[in-house]
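Lab notebook, design round three. We kept the backbone fixed and only want residue identities now. Task for the bench partner: fill in a sequence for the structure below.
Input structure tokens:
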């Protein structure tokens, strides 16, 4: 059965309305810093169904020289999907969801963006980690808070291609090239 799922290409991502609302709320509350969280659901043949989302716990980095560095907070949040503490948090949440018989498969993660600026090294490393370590069919959902505030919802799903995954694994990709 697993071979059939791997052979069927992923053609659609179906997101429940509650998940969309939770992502919008989390990203809007943390704006302009980056918000991240994880997605759970089911992989049904060629459709990835996202049925729930949970924000990653926030940890404030220590203030330097008595002032708050917004860039440090944003960088810390952007790298959150790979933190060991958050991986443990994900596993604990999934275990609790399974106890109450709810869809509890990790199908990806989400992040916020500002005016389309989201493709950076943290984004690539997070998605590479998810596709390599967890499931090659995971997605990264990106909610652009600024564009959404202009009147139309901006929520997109992304995956890394197999060719990119291979190039990244062989260190043929850097942010300079």
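Proposed sequence:
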């Amino acid at each position: 059965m697993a071979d059939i799922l791997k052979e069927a290409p992923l053609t659609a991502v179906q997101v429940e309305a509650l998940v969309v609302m939770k992502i919008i709320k989390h990203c809007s509350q943390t704006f302009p810093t980056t918000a991240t969280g994880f997605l759970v659901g089911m992989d049904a043949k060629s459709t990835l169904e996202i049925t729930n989302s949970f924000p990653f716990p926030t940890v404030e980095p220590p203030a330097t020289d008595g002032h708050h560095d917004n860039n440090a907070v944003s960088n810390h949040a952007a790298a959150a999907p790979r933190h060991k503490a958050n991986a443990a948090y994900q596993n604990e949440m999934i275990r609790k969801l399974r106890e109450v018989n709810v869809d509890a498969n990790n199908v990806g993660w989400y992040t916020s963006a500002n005016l389309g600026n989201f493709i950076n090294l943290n984004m690539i490393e997070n998605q590479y980690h998810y596709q390599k370590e967890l499931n090659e069919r995971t997605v990264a959902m990106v909610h652009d808070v600024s564009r959404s505030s202009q009147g139309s919802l901006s929520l997109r799903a992304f995956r890394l291609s197999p060719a990119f995954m291979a190039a990244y694994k062989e260190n043929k990709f850097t942010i300079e090239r």
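Keep this in mind before ordering anything: The helical segments are 2-7, 17-30, 70-78, 84-99, 121-134, 145-148, 162-169.
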